[in-house]
Amino acid sequence: MTGTLVLAGTPIGDVADAPPRLAAELETADIIAAEDTRRLRRLTQALGVHTRGRVVSYFEGNESARTPELVEALAGGSRVLLVTDAGMPSVSDPGYRLVAAAVERDIRVTAVPGPSAVLTALALSGLPVDRFCFEGFLPRKAGERLGRLREVADERRTLVYFEAPHRLDDTLAAMAEVFGEDRRAAVCRELTKTYEEVRRGGLGALARWAADGVRGEITIVVEGAADTGPGELDAEELVRRVRVREEAGERRKEAIAAVAAETGLPKREVFDAVVAAKNAERAGGPTGR
Questions:
Q1: pTM for this one?
Q2: Three-state DSSP class for 271?
Q3: CA distance 238 to 45
Q4: CA–CA separation, 57 and 82 (whole Å)
């Protein structure tokens, strides 16, 4: 019989939030794969747990190399517990490769649900939570970061991001540039910890606040784009949407077709707006931006 891979959520701050089943899994697992073995040791001490299984490191640097070893252990009948530093494995943390490899070998995968920074930030943000999408960490390079943001400039669902504190001001400034300074957002810092803080406001104001420096683990929640009906769209907005898609890598023909589909307008109308803007640029007139 093959073993079982268990993905276990760990506290994102307050250790008292650890799910009750976590202690049992830590005590009985044959192998514990931990993103940081030192943090695992602190967690087990805080929970009063004594592990009997073998503890191995499993982090971004060795994930590819260690996955086959863990899969073979699973195939041989071992119960492997995967834990990361905080939250649920695979969610912007190590785990996806191991889960995919286990599924491919028809090995059972289960989970111990636990705290989630994504869901906690959404609940505290004060923004719509009925529909949302998680975008993880943005690229570190400014140009790539802007390109990624432009891809979702017209996304109507609430957006959730993780960010490092030393990049927060640049990220919020880029969001304000792409989404608009008045787009509502919430910066959630140190969730469930002693100095928990949720700062709400427009992206422009939040960017200015963050310029003084912010510490701690950061989750950003951003309001989705307004649902603009076809009758409210002018040529300038159509051209802007096409350009956003072109800057994200789409060919003009594909971008025009996509904008027509999302607005419910004829492709010809979008095409004419783009051509008119291009002619205006050549003539030295308004660009349509």
A1: 0.77
A2: helix
A3: 58
A4: 10
